[in-house]
Design a protein that fits this description.
single chain; alpha/beta; Aspartate Aminotransferase, domain 1; Aspartate Aminotransferase, domain 2; 2 domains; eight-stranded mixed beta sheet; four-stranded mixed beta sheet; 14 helices; globular; binds pyridoxal-5'-phosphate
Length: 451
């Protein structure tokens, strides 16, 4: 690829990608299987392959990938240990046996070493499925009705919980909490009996729990909010949520679909030292293969054990994804320290570098970083600390970020054009990658964010 004089590595949008997407639109609704990959403001990018921290498009343009498939690729694209394990499983034993397999117990035992509160678990294929099952489990165990979630958090697209995604300010509850609003057309009303509360507000959570005294089955959260910009929990917020749920007889569910095996080997519970009653894992656990896990104590899981609560799925725990998870867990157990030191170190380099560049250039921004989960948010004004979704929503300048993302994509750095989507790093990202990214960020910022 040639370096052009304007600092871009290729001239314009990938024309091959445009053509491929146009072709796809003739047989795939909207051109792709996830709306989040073909938003109206996406610059076309149809990928052909990935390796380590890099992806290539159909025109063979090369990008440093800061999206990592929305989080799962904790070891980068095509990590040899995971790929080898999957190929071995596929060629020597088969992808889908349709019977209990020894490997499932082996993987579960390795998960339990990282998440000590989990005594029993069930595997399935997506985060949405595992979360819908977790909500049923909480209602079954407590015999209570309400679920409390938080503004800006995303827990999958099931009818059980899909609250309005990236809600505009006018759609947020007026008070400290309110009923969930439907996340999509066709839901036959809002998710039933789901209340949405302000993030990082112990007062709001306490009021919501007290107002529904003795009828809250569970409080569910992303322990580090990652779907409305990265917003970590305030010091003590997780402890307060833990204490309040105990007090009110509700279960605490940590949706660690993003944070599990990412912000620490044992996820956010490990990083912050707070244990959930029910944990959901998914993305990094599979290293790029579709797996999720729902885990809890033996007592809470009893209704599944007895079959009173139905849980199943043709592809749940198939041996192909189990082989991938087994390899991910082996890597984590073998080299925990090295892996997380590296992830923290490249993330720190990127976050502090972006902070320095935007500050020096006088560009209003906020950089939030929890390990390899980063937001570099462009704001309308000097926002000050942002600790809630509504503050994030109020200050974000989406149009500016889209312009900036387009510029960076054209210079060979990819991250999602919606600034509510975090940047994700992997063990494949090097300090050299970060130096290149920072150089291009500075060039891009000078080109489209000044004046
Ligand atoms: C925190 C969180 N929970 C749940 C989900 C849903 O997972 P899936 O898309 O696999 O159903 C996601 C997906 O991005 C997520 O980020």
């Amino acid at each position: 690829m040639t370096q052009l004089t304007n600092g871009k590595l290729f001239e314009t949008v990938s024309t091959g990608s445009e053509q491929q997407l146009e072709r796809a639109r003739q047989s795939i609704a909207g051109g792709d299987n996830s709306t989040m990959r073909v938003l109206p403001y996406h610059l076309p990018l149809v990928a052909t392959r990935g390796q380590g921290s890099t992806i290539w498009d159909v025109d063979d343009n090369e990008y440093i990938d800061l999206n990592m498939a929305y989080g799962p690729l904790i070891f980068g694209h095509r990590p040899p240990a995971v790929i080898d394990a999957v190929v071995r499983q596929l060629t020597e034993s088969g992808s889908q046996l349709g019977f209990p397999a020894e490997m499932t117990a082996r993987v579960a035992e390795k998960v339990k070493l990282l998440y000590p509160h989990i005594e029993l678990m069930r595997f399935s294929s997506t985060g949405s499925e595992a979360i819908a099952a977790a909500l049923r489990l909480a209602r079954t165990f407590t015999e209570k009705r309400y679920i409390i979630a938080f503004e800006g958090h995303y827990h999958g697209s099931s009818d059980a919980i899909f609250n309005r995604y990236h809600a505009p300010l006018e759609d947020l509850p007026e008070g400290p909490y309110g009923p969930a609003t439907p996340g999509t057309l066709g839901m036959n009303g809002a998710p039933h009996d789901v209340l949405v509360c302000r993030w990082n507000s112990p007062e709001a959570l306490e009021q919501c729990l007290s107002d529904h005294a003795d009828d809250v089955a569970a409080v569910i959260m992303e322990p580090v909010m990652g779907n409305g910009g990265v917003i970590p929990p305030n010091p003590d917020f997780l402890d307060v949520a833990r204490a309040l749920t105990h007090e009110h007889g509700a279960l605490l569910i940590f949706d660690e679909v993003i944070t599990g095996m990412r912000v620490a080997p044992g996820g956010a519970q490990d990083r912050y030292g707070v244990e959930a009653d029910i944990t959901i894992l998914s993305k990094a656990l599979g290293g790029g293969f579709p797996i999720s896990a729902l885990g809890s104590t033996r007592e809470i899981m009893q209704s599944i054990v007895e079959g009173r609560l139905f849980h199943g799925g043709v592809y749940s725990g198939n041996t192909l994804v189990m082989a991938a998870a087994d390899a991910v867990l082996d890597e984590l157990h073998a080299n925990k320290e090295g892996i997380y030191q590296h992830l923290e170190s490249v993330s720190e380099t990127l976050a502090t570098g972006v902070e320095e560049i935007f500050t020096r250039l006088g560009i209003p921004h906020r950089v939030h970083c929890v390990g390899p989960m980063i937001s570099m948010v462009l704001t309308h004004d000097d926002a000050g600390p942002i600790t809630s979704y509504r503050e994030m929503r109020r200050h974000c300048d989406f149009d500016k970020y889209i312009r900036f993302q387009h510029q960076l994509q054209q210079s060979g750095v990819y991250f999602h054009p919606n600034q509510f989507e975090p940047l994700f790093l992997s063990t494949a990202h090097t300090h050299e990658d970060m130096a290149t990214v920072l150089e291009r960020i500075e060039d891009g910022a000078r080109a489209v964010l000044l004046g």
